[in-house]
UniProtKB/TrEMBL annotation:
Phylogenetic placement of the source organism: Archaea, Methanobacteriati, Methanobacteriota, Methanomada group, Methanobacteria
Stored Gene3D superfamilies: Amidase signature (AS) domain (3.90.1300.10)
Name of the featured protein: Glutamyl-tRNA(Gln) amidotransferase subunit A
Pfam families: Amidase
Source organism: Candidatus Methanobinarius endosymbioticus
Domain Amidase: 20-450
PANTHER family: GLUTAMYL-TRNA(GLN) AMIDOTRANSFERASE SUBUNIT A, MITOCHONDRIAL (PTHR11895:SF7), TRANSAMIDASE (PTHR11895)
EC number(s) given by UniProt: 6.3.5.7
Catalysed reactions, semicolon-separated: L-glutamyl-tRNA(Gln) + L-glutamine + ATP + H2O = L-glutaminyl-tRNA(Gln) + L-glutamate + ADP + phosphate + H(+)
């Protein structure tokens, strides 16, 4: 059953919230030791919440819109009384004293939080191999990386360990693992979801978003976490669509969603992508053409600029964000205990931040970012969506040694949305040799609902 159907079953008492939770706990008990998707599980609080929901329903009391759905949370989002380690030895004993805004909203709507998901250390990576607590396996392609940095969040969905997870996306950290694990992942418009309570990797790029195994799971999560937060400086104070209303339609209406949509396929995206992935994406293009969409080949001439621009900004902002981990208040001093990739980014950020270099590198990167954003907005000014591959290559095998630039190359198609502040989502387009391949959809700022509509239509 899909997420909508499960919610209805719980509210009708055809399925108890406690039974939904216990089925996931059993899967975690049986499989997490080999997959390593979850770092911590809180059975007691989850069971208490599930029982509370069942009791409310039995008494005829009102329950929230997430009643009985089970959530996994990336280990860099604060959940009160949980260990928020960001998968680093630096914070291995840090117990959070508060809930992030997104967590408050999930709890208010009777979502059940089951535990904290593995990730690349401080979200610095694309494979979840840099976690201090060990790599996460890919349930959809065992022995291969699940992607990163939200690899635990994607693997938990692919292994059916919970209904929905939250990840954070700085340059593709939700969409990359969604692609590799064959699940749905969504990065909302910058500012649509509060970042209050998120341990930043790069404050001007980060955005929290959901992962799920169906579009209805994405929609119910977005309806909960999207919205203005007066405590968070980047939060957008505006009206947002009701995502569940958009996709809770009959099949004929869903088929009509792609009619009259103009969709761009960027030539440079396929140029940097492996042929076997392009072939699968071409099948999705043919499908949306058959659904009535107008598909237009287009060009984006700044693709070679995107990775260096992204990483220069990332290095500087990450260096700044990590200065609070000095060993006085939060566990260990980060430079003393962190892994190789985190240290590389700190050292690069420190170097670039020096006064004599900041104009040469960082300020130029900000100028390049404006150029990229303007070009993307120009492309989307008379189009609804940009469609293409999520990741240009298949996931490597766990433990296979990659040079930093080889690892960074995973991000070439996903960093664009973060640099431009636009919404982007990934969904499974097919498989190559049994390994999932993701289709990425991008829209103009606040065009999040168009992506959800297209996903619903394509997944129908």
């Amino acid at each position: 059953m899909n997420t909508f159907e499960k919610l209805q079953a719980i509210k009708n008492q055809d399925l108890k919230a406690t039974d939904n939770l216990e089925s996931f706990l059993k899967k975690i008990e049986n499989n997490n030791s080999s997959i390593n998707a979850f770092l911590t599980i809180n059975k007691d609080s989850a069971r208490n919440k599930a029982k509370e929901i069942d009791d409310k329903i039995a008494k005829g009391a009102n329950v929230g819109s997430l009643a009985g759905l089970v959530f996994g949370i990336k280990a860099n989002i604060n959940v009160e009384d949980e260990i928020i380690s960001a998968a680093s030895k630096t914070l291995e004993d840090y117990q959070s004293s508060y809930d992030a805004t997104v967590i408050k909203r999930i709890k208010e709507q009777d979502g059940i939080i089951i535990g904290m998901c593995n990730m690349d250390e401080f979200a610095a990576g694309s494979s979840t191999e840099s976690s201090y607590f060990g790599a996460t396996d890919n349930p959809a392609a065992p022995g291969h990386i699940p992607g990163g940095s939200s690899g635990g969040s994607a693997a938990a969905i692919a292994a059916e360990m919970c209904d929905i997870t939250l990840g954070s996306d700085t340059g593709g950290s939700i969409r990359n693992p969604a692609s590799h694990c064959g699940v749905f992942g969504f990065k909302p418009t910058y500012g649509a979801v509060s970042r209050q309570g998120l341990l930043d990797l790069s404050m001007s790029l980060d955005q929290i978003g959901p992962l799920a195994d169906d579009v209805s799971g994405m929609a119910v999560a977005l309806d909960t976490i999207v919205g203005y937060d007066k405590t968070e400086c980047t939060s957008l104070n505006q009206e947002f669509p009701v995502f569940t209303e958009v996709i809770n339609q009959n099949s004929e209406k869903l088929q009509d969603y792609m009619k009259d949509m103009k969709v761009l396929c960027i030539n440079q995206f396929s140029d940097v992508t492996d042929d076997h992935i392009n072939n699968i994406i071409d099948d999705s293009v043919a499908k949306i053409k058959n659904m009535g969409a107008e598909v237009v080949d287009s060009s984006f001439n700044y693709i070679d600029l995107c990775l260096p621009t992204y990483y220069l900004i990332n290095y500087v902002e990450f260096f700044s964000a990590t200065r609070k981990y000095d060993g006085r208040k939060y566990g260990y001093k980060i430079e003393d205990v962190c892994g190789e990739e985190v240290l590389r980014r700190i050292e690069m950020g420190s170097y670039i931040s020096q006064q004599e270099f900041s104009g040469k590198y960082y300020k130029k990167a900000l100028q390049a970012r404006s150029l990229i954003r303007n070009e993307i907005n120009k492309l989307l000014s008379d189009a609804d969506l940009i469609l293409g591959p999520t990741v240009p290559k298949l996931p490597h095998k766990i433990g296979e040694k990659l040079e930093p630039m080889e690892m960074y190359a995973y991000d070439v198609l996903t960093v664009i949305a973060n640099l431009a502040g636009i919404p982007a989502g990934s969904m499974k387009a097919g498989e190559y040799n049994g390994i999932p391949v993701g289709l990425q959809l991008q829209a103009k700022p606040n065009g999040d609902v168009k992506i959800i509509k297209a996903m619903a239509a394509l997944n129908h």
